[in-house]
Amino acid sequence: MSELHFTQEQQHILSQNPFINKVTEKSITYSEQFKLHAINEYAKGKTPTEIFREAGLDPKVIGPKNPGRSLSRWRSVYFKEGKAGLMGEKRGRGSSGRPKTSTLSLEERLIAAEAKIAYLQMENEFLKKLDELERRLEK
Fold it and tell me: pTM of the full predicted structure?
């Protein structure tokens, strides 16, 4: 994550740009149109810094490495998921979420315990058979 922090003045200036959807103290959310435009311009041979400058985004303000990082991320998403991958907010997508904090009911705990007992019984039977086969092979 970037260590940049945008001042109120920088946030106001950046929010006026048509290619930016949202600006906070720590992040910028670019429009889908800009992401697609940047990918197309990059394919034509322009550098990420040139693309961002032409869009009115000064690399000194947004961070000198951010144009390249952003474009690299957008291109990989575009090639994996197509246009739809660049649409909408994707932060947090694919997260497994927080672990359950609720406890299981008595019935659910009983079902889980019975399943575990059945598994362990089958495992014991298997190990007994394996032990018996090893003894036969030794003789």
Answer: 0.61
